[in-house]
Amino acid sequence: MTGVDADLARARALLAGAARVVVFTGAGVSAESGIPTFRDALEGLWARYDPEALATEAGFRADPPLVWRWYAERRARVARAAPNAAHRAIAALERTGRAVTVVTQNVDGLHGRAGSTDVVELHGSIVRAKCLEGCGPAPAGWDRDARVPPPCPACGAPLRPDVVWFGEPLPPGAFERAERLAGEADAMLVVGTSGLVQPAASLPWAAVRHRRPVIVVDPNPTALDDLATVGLRGSAVSVVPSILPSGPIRPDASAP
Ligand code: OAD
Questions:
Q1: How far is CA 76 from CA 1, 49, 79, 126, 202, in A?
Q2: How far apart are CA 226 and CA 246, in angstroms?
């Protein structure tokens, strides 16, 4: 058995024996759905912009139409995209009798569209909008309003994407729940994140502190590789479906 085969077998055993699984994902899990990762170079019209400048409240307030259009283009790309085999395999894991929570940094909504029912969207969702000044969620039909951006019907301020911008806090309670679940999981599967952005990237460390196994899947080296119980070099679609169990929990499987 080669080293890679042994790693795959170890990952399969850990997941087969896990009753509680936390799946922590980043942009890489959606790459094979045609959605560029966050650190892919922006394309075309947007190539001259720095996403970390656009994805801020200051950037939005400086030019609401520009930032609104950027998100509208990303929203249209997400609407055209479909969940891939990795999203679907993660959703199918719930149907094996395991408690599965997906904690994602992605704002594309593809885990939910794949059928995952317990998804913690640490960075919000591009398919939702809200009032810039805090009135609350945008009313139904906001995404059919051609104004750029549409105004909040309550106060007239611009609507903004319901995503976490740089420098903003995460949704209340989201990280705390994710951190608790990471410490309680029988296994954590990490897919497609560079592990560069805090506090999200500290979640695998919560699993390690509680001596929970962490499996990291990525075609490239990441900042989380050193903490991995098992590190698998490969894409989400080529690896994730091949390591997730399709049968019931096997308590004996992950015994050393
Ligand atoms: P990054 O763009 O930083 O990292 C994407 C990861 O996906 C990299 O490690 C790639 O190697 C990997 N990858 C690429 N193609 C893949 C594939 N086919 N299968 C699996 N992995 C693949 O994106 P994130 O780590 O998600 O935050 O970035 C985290 C956060 O940084 C984003 O949520 C965003 C940004 O700041 C906010 O917007 C608040």
A1: 45, 19, 5, 10, 31
A2: 28
Q: What are 96-125's pLDDT values in tens digits?
A: 999 999 999 999 999 999 999 999 999 999
User: Which residues belong to the active site?
Assistant: 123
| Closest approach atom of ligand 1 to CA 235 | 19
* Tens-digit pLDDT profile for residues 212-248: 999 999 999 999 999 999 999 999 999 999 999 999 9
Which residues, other chains included, contact 231 with Cβ-Cβ below 8 Å and sequence gap of 6+?
7, 215, 216, 225
Q: Residues with beta carbon inside 6 Å of ligand 1? A: 26-28, 31-32, 37-39, 55, 105, 123, 164, 192-194, 196-197, 218-220, 222, 235-236
Predicted TM-score of the model (pTM): 0.95
Structure tokens, 219? 């075609």
Q: Write the secondary structure of the chain as one string of H (helix), E (strand) and C (coil).
A: CCHHHHHHHHHHHHHHCCCEEEEEECCHHHHCCCCCCCCCCCCHHHHHCCHHHHCCHHHHHHCHHHHHHHHHHHHHHHHHCCCCHHHHHHHHHHHHCCEEEEEECCCCCHHHHHCCCCEEECCEEEEEEEECCCCCECCCCHHHCCCCCCECCCCCCEEEEEECCCCCCCCCCHHHHHHHHHHHCCEEEEECCCCCCCCHHHHHHHHHHCCCCEEEEECCCCCCHHHCCEEEECCHHHHHHHHCCCCCCCCCCCCC
Count the Cβ atoms, other than its own, within 10 Å of residue 245: 21
